[in-house]
């Protein structure tokens, strides 16, 4: 089997999480400057066997697309052009940032550590991936 890689896209930073090769465990991988996201993913898939990109789909409470969807669509087009061999799926990411923050509190991180937005993005990507694994 191959890994699944989850992306919590942001206009400044993007959180990334990945499964093990058996697709059992979701782990935070890193947070990348969004300008470097496509080159990072391109290099990663050259080193690791990835079969699926999961990209968070932010929605409003009424199920309409969020404002950031325009940026995500542009990213998806670039990603598909650069790495057409890997399937891309979207996953509802409502509340992942709030859950990530609550997870940080529950794990005992201090206030300064909880202000680390890069860590929140990485945890959010992990939550997106974990929800997908649960739904399989």
From TrEMBL:
Its EC number is 3.1.-.-. CDD domains: YqgF. It is found in: Cytoplasm. GO terms for cellular component: cytosol. GO terms for biological process: rRNA 5'-end processing. NCBIfam families: RNAse_H_YqgF (TIGR00250). This is Putative pre-16S rRNA nuclease. It comes from Allotamlana fucoidanivorans. The gene is ruvX.
């Amino acid at each position: 089997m191959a890994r699944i890689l989850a992306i919590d896209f942001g206009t400044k930073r993007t959180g990334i999480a990945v499964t093990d090769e058996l697709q059992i465990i979701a782990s935070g991988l890193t947070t990348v400057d969004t300008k470097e996201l496509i080159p990072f993913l391109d290099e990663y898939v050259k080193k690791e066997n990835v079969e699926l990109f999961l990209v968070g789909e932010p929605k409003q409470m009424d199920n309409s697309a969020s404002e950031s969807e325009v940026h995500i669509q542009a990213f998806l087009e670039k990603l598909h052009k650069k790495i057409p061999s890997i399937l891309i799926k979207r996953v509802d990411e409502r509340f992942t940032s709030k859950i990530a923050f609550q997870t940080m509190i529950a794990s005992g991180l201090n206030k300064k550590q909880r202000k680390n937005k890069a860590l929140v993005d990485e945890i959010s990507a992990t939550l997106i991936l974990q929800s997908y694994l649960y739904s399989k």
